[in-house]
């Protein structure tokens, strides 16, 4: 008489397991649909005109408001920051790139490594780079005789093998010139011109935040930097290898002590 009970028990266990698996599959499908609806809403919000937002202001008006808030603060220390929401599908790599400002926020100190005398003279006389030199400069940095107080570094191919000895010193700081990073070239003039006033950006989470001006910049200077930022962001999107590239969403301007003000951007 044990067999009917055993069979009944096994049947109930199997039925429960199948029901649980069916419920689990249904839950996963519901989650997927929920995520799709949420993404559709985010894309719709990204395409909504900024002027419809209650905190919207034209850029010129936003700048007057932010400058008023910073009155009494050291002008050189008050930064205007742009923050943009990025709408991306799952698995899409974060946006990265560089913005070349027509009016940089600070002086960018550049180091150039080369044994080419002609390029050494050009970097010193025309571009007034912070540091320039070849083997001697590399040895001085290795021995700790030269401060690593520069923001960017470029090199010609002839010194690349010697740069390897500075990997542990410059590498962690992101200052080691490499072919892969595009900071090594036969002709450094165009490379330095393009990167002298450029600032890197990287998407963190679902947004990008970047300092674009100081409060004492003129409206024209701020607008030119904003246009350069928009161009750089769109170039980063265009370079994404995906069927559904990212979309630029709501963008705000804020100052060091000010609130976020929604502006037209993309």
Automatic annotation (TrEMBL):
Q: Does Metal-binding show up as a keyword for this record?
A: no
- One Pfam family it belongs to: Ribosomal_L1
The question of whether Ribosomal protein is a record keyword is answered with yes
Look up the record and report any one GO term of the cellular component aspect.
mitochondrial large ribosomal subunit
Q: GO: which molecular function terms?
A: RNA binding; structural constituent of ribosome
Q: Which GO terms describe its biological process?
A: translation
Q: Which UniProt keywords apply?
A: Ribonucleoprotein, Ribosomal protein
Q: Which family does it belong to?
A: Belongs to the universal ribosomal protein uL1 family.
Q: This chain belongs to which protein, by name? A: Ribosomal protein
Natural source organism: Kluyveromyces marxianus (strain DMKU3-1042 / BCC 29191 / NBRC 104275)
């Amino acid at each position: 008489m044990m067999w009917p009970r055993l069979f009944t028990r096994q049947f109930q266990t199997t039925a429960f397991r199948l029901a649980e698996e069916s419920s689990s599959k249904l839950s996963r499908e519901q989650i997927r649909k929920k995520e799709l609806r949420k993404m559709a809403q985010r894309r719709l919000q990204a395409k909504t005109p900024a002027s419809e937002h209650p905190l919207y202001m034209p850029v010129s008006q936003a700048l007057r408001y932010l400058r008023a808030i910073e009155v009494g603060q050291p002008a050189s220390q008050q930064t205007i920051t742009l923050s943009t929401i990025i709408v991306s599908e799952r698995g899409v790599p974060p946006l990265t790139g560089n913005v070349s400002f027509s009016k940089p926020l600070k002086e960018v100190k550049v180091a150039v490594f080369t044994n080419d005398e002609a390029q050494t003279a050009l970097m010193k006389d025309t571009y007034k780079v912070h540091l320039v030199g070849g083997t001697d400069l590399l040895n001085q940095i290795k021995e700790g005789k030269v401060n690593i107080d520069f923001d960017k570094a470029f090199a010609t191919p002839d010194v690349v093998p010697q740069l390897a000895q500075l990997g542990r010193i410059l590498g962690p700081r992101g200052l080691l010139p490499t072919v892969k990073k595009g900071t090594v070239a036969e002709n450094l003039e165009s490379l330095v011109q393009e990167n002298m006033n450029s600032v890197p950006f990287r998407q963190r989470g679902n947004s990008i935040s970047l300092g674009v001006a100081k409060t004492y910049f003129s409206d024209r200077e701020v607008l030119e930097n904003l246009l350069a930022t928009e161009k750089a962001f769109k170039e980063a999107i265009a370079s994404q290898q995906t069927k559904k590239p990212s979309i630029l969403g709501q963008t705000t301007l804020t100052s060091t002590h000010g609130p976020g003000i929604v502006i037209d951007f993309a």
